[in-house]
Amino acid sequence: MLVPVLDDEKHYWVGDDEVEKLLRFGEGWLAGHPERDQISRRYLRHQARLTRAALARLADDDLPDPDATQLAHAEEEAAVERRIDLNEHRLGAVLAALRAGGARRVIDLGCGEGRLLKAMLDGGGFDEIVGMDVSSRALEGAARRLRIDRLPPDRAQRVRLFQGTLTYRDRRLRGFDAAAVVEVIEHLDTSRLAAFERALFGDARPGVIVVTTPNVEYNVRFDWLPAGSFRHKDHQFEWTREQFRRWAEAVAARYGYGLRIEPVGPDEPTVGPPTQMGVFSRE
Ligand code: SAH
Fold first, then answer.
1. How many domains does the chain have?
2. Residue 75's domain spans which residues?
């Protein structure tokens, strides 16, 4: 489209349909282009009526203002950074809880792309590191992060991934010192929570179970998050501190586990921490 504009020459008749063409080719950039008037005028062969029609339509285009776009990007980035920071906090807290529980054989349930697995493998001190997820895509990501097919044999024999779901009893989940369930329960339909509890606390029964989940009270601190929405579109629920405590206490009592609840990230006086962690120890 710019060739005739730069030539300032068109060798065929320019009619009303050229306005449509201009708008179609210019979609997404022309309305905000600093030279849009000149580009339109030249493209439409200096026909005043057509140019006026085109410019009027371009002015109606609801284009984001470039400064606002920049700002939004900067904000998004800051939010991502804050989230990365929170990820690090969470990883550190979960690792510390696993180590404090003396766990050497650990299964990470809903391991996602394997951040915790990688930290366990690199940090050392674990004899068996297993990741399970329902999503094959997540498992592929984990395999890549761990470079699972290029590990030296001593490491390769310590780490393993498999596909499965948390809401069914599964003998492959048995026999571990500890299980981590990091930012996963909020992805489960509330009607499947009881099945998850039976499969993990009732059947697999590892010595230690570390569960983390968002604290919904903290959401007002995320300025990128529209009021009242969850942190991720896949979340089925997000709990307050009180809701989490009540759930965790009931599960601990039902299945014979002791319970400690810890904040993860800055624990603010009114809204609490961004993430809440329950550490269950089999009695
Ligand atoms: N624990 C990881 C990933 C959290 S995202 C981390 O902290 O980075 C939630 C993960 O739970 C996703 O990878 C999703 O595929 C997995 N998941 C959701 N429902 C599941 C289920 N029923 N069984 C196993 N994994 C599940």
1. 2
2. 70-282
Q: Which residue has the tokens 């989230």?
A: 83
* 135 CA: nearest ligand 1 atom: 15
Q: Is the pTM of this model over 0.90?
A: no
| Three-class DSSP labels, 55-105 | HHHHHHCCCCCHHHHHHHHHHHHHHHHHHHHHHHHHHHHHHHHHHHCCCCE
283 residues of the chain, pLDDT tens digit each: 778 788 777 666 677 888 888 888 888 778 877 788 888 888 888 888 888 888 888 876 544 455 565 666 666 666 655 665 888 899 999 999 999 999 999 999 999 999 999 999 999 999 999 999 999 999 999 999 999 999 999 999 999 999 999 999 999 999 999 999 999 999 999 999 999 999 999 999 999 999 999 999 999 998 888 888 999 989 999 999 999 999 999 999 999 999 999 999 999 999 999 999 999 999 9
Q: Is residue 64 part of a domain?
A: no
**CATH, residue 130:** 3.40.50.150
Looking at the structure, tell me whether residues 221 and 190 fall in a common domain. Answer: yes
Q: Which atom of ligand 1 is nearest to the CA of 188?
A: 19
Integer Cα distance of 135 and 40 in angstroms? 50
Instruction: Classify residue 65: in a domain, yes or no.
Output: no
Contact 165 CB / ligand 1 (< 6 Å): yes
Distance CA 236, CA 230 (A): 9
Query: Whose CA is closest to atom 8 on ligand 1?
Result: 112
Ligand 1 atom closest to the CA of 138, numbered from 1: 13
Nearest CA to ligand 1 atom 11: 110
54 and 133 both lie in a single domain: no
User: Which residue's CA is the closest to the ligand 1 atom numbered 17?
Assistant: 110
Check whether residue 253 and residue 149 sit in a common domain. yes
